Protein: Aromatic-L-amino-acid decarboxylase
Amino acid sequence: MNASEFRRRGKEMVDYVADYIEGIEGRQVYPDVEPGYLRPLIPTSAPQEPDKYEDIVSDIEKIIMPGVTHWHSPYFFAYFPTASSYPAMLADMLCGAIGCIGFSWAASPACTELETVMMDWLGKMLQLPEAFLAEKAGEGGGVIQGSASEATLMSLLAARAKVTKRLQAASPGLTEAAVLEKLVAYSSDQVVATLGTTSCCSFDRLSEVGPICNKEGMWLHIDAAYAGSAFICPEFRHLLNGVEFADSFNFNPHKWLLVNFDCSAMWVKKRADLTGAFKLDPLYLKHSHQDSGLITDYRHWQLPLGRRFRSLKLWFVCRMYGVTGLQAYIRKHVQLAHEFESFVHQDPRFEICAEVTLGLVCFRLKGSNKLNEALLERINGAKKIHLVPCHLRDKFVLRFAICSRVVESAHVQLAWEHIRGLATDLLAAGME
Amino acid sequence: MNASEFRRRGKEMVDYVADYIEGIEGRQVYPDVEPGYLRPLIPTSAPQEPDKYEDIVSDIEKIIMPGVTHWHSPYFFAYFPTASSYPAMLADMLCGAIGCIGFSWAASPACTELETVMMDWLGKMLQLPEAFLAEKAGEGGGVIQGSASEATLMSLLAARAKVTKRLQAASPGLTEAAVLEKLVAYSSDQVVATLGTTSCCSFDRLSEVGPICNKEGMWLHIDAAYAGSAFICPEFRHLLNGVEFADSFNFNPHKWLLVNFDCSAMWVKKRADLTGAFKLDPLYLKHSHQDSGLITDYRHWQLPLGRRFRSLKLWFVCRMYGVTGLQAYIRKHVQLAHEFESFVHQDPRFEICAEVTLGLVCFRLKGSNKLNEALLERINGAKKIHLVPCHLRDKFVLRFAICSRVVESAHVQLAWEHIRGLATDLLAAGME
Structure:
């Protein structure tokens, strides 16, 4: 495919993408396929000679779409949101074209420098303490990771390297294994200090945990993967109070801040803690500026060597929405969650199972777990909307998460009417 | 930005991308900027109100491009190639629009199932032993990781979990820390068993290492990050002989197989070794098919929970190039490397420092390391072409890697004439 064919096919694809998103409400949110559906539909091996592009395009609707769970449908209320916006998609096209691998400053200075500044923009939007920002040429700074899991793993490894050095300095001769045996990672049943758990979006009390960690010389990592985006709104910022005690902090703009996956934002107070644990310097990666103290080589901040130009997505999204646009987006989702909450409150057969703070409502029918399992089965079997459950203190609970960029009050109302109707049928069938 | 504006801006971006790639030869391959160049060019915080899209677009050429190292320029001969092709970019647009997070089969069945089949396609192109394929519903299969580092880490963790279980079964009461202290990971100075090292593209002897590992019950992971793509050509497949002894194998189609970053292909003989080490099953991720034995939940195969629909890129690329097209691409690059090698051989001032097997030529001026450091400095200072060095047995060596999709014989000739000229100047200045 040459450039002129790409111009033609690329523009067709832009239209396909726009058609898909404009028409997503008309697609069944959860697919009908059974496991193994796809293999019989395609050849057992790659073609020797090129296929026609038209055939690939027609296979998208024939083979791929019937097996897609439509995460961006306004009837998708499962898991947590995954971000999607047109500005982020435009930025990703540019990212693919530049196609640099930004493991060092020299490998593409713009890739590193835009990331550092975007992480400052984002940190300021969250009113992070200055110690986390790179701006003042201090010791802190931010980095884009692929996922919150990677950010957590990086924190654990950095914490381990730091404490091992400290213990070995205090007791020379101590082996690394002996240190490892003594190390303890404290976590709740939702792991590390968490703001906005996946099950029910609950919040750990940082102002209690934080001072203890600081006093005992323990590394404090805070994971606010989903909830973090909300902290750009002043009315939710108090949920982040205590972040000043943390060594590292992470949230995922790719969940709720309109930046397509992957873009997991992580900040540390002391960049040397990360780079000290992971420094990798073979000659082929060295460059003339690296010892100047002026530059950042992000390969020392992450597990993989390679990295895409992901800050372009943040840049496009922040500029095309503006802070007020992003705040309005968060507020709309929270408002819709409260709307759903009020519906549940109005029906005495149901109960709310956890405080609704952001965009997640945990609810259930009063009654047995079995009853609620049956309700969820009917909901997901009908495939008009899509939900997933969780366990809260041994209770089987339904999660209603506001997810789609295009979800409106009308969709939430329809979803609720649908759930109520299925519950009525179920109760009429004598289940308790 | 609504759908109709995206249609317009998306098509403009398609043209920008095509213009960029068509015109990339005219851009200076390595940028002129100094560390810290970008921060003064953009505001210190995100705009409160939306910017105009036109302003963002004009900032691409004003702010971003001056700091880009152009990895896809035909004058870029540094590091290793990173893949880029129009079909992969089209697939990535579709991937962004679908925007599913395929951590489980249910989270988007097409995402999981296409990946499994594409990994079989790719495995067959490499003539991997059947034990690595998922096709026959055996114990093996493939997964797309983000990077070779992640694949290596997954192998190490899986190997550790496996041997820990074995030792604890043999000696109940053995603590995990005691096991860890006994574990040894063998590697060369280029890490794990490697086919095509980064420094000089050398190859470990699998047929010697493999049987020892198997006999001693040691996990054998083979990393062929760069070289793996070449094994789709029958004349290079012998370099992979011995893979039948491996427990896991990995290479990066995102390096040399025209699939844009990230797409790191990893196969295991026993998927239970991976999933046994990493199984994560909270209720909100469970689905009705997961215990059927019929499906794959890729979250158990990797570190992050989230994952994009990356197999679309493989699908588009395999179909648009066909196996013969991909083979021709590899062969052209290898041919260009040999062409450069023959130029070096013809100039008695230079020497070749390692066998040229694939697309990398390691060479230097006969003489001191200092001389070669000075030569590299002049080459990269002139910014007509871009190279990086390596150390081979204490010698400072220049690496000439064939990288760009659009590099032709004429570019290689120009690059060589340029290098020769700079060497002549350097030697005339009396350096030895």
Strands of chain B lie at 141-145, 193-194, 221-223, 248-251, 264-268, 350-352, 360-365, 388-392, 395-401. The domain at 33-65 of chain B is CATH 1.20.1340.10 (dopa decarboxylase, N-terminal domain). Chain B touches chain A through 133 residues (CB under 8 Å).
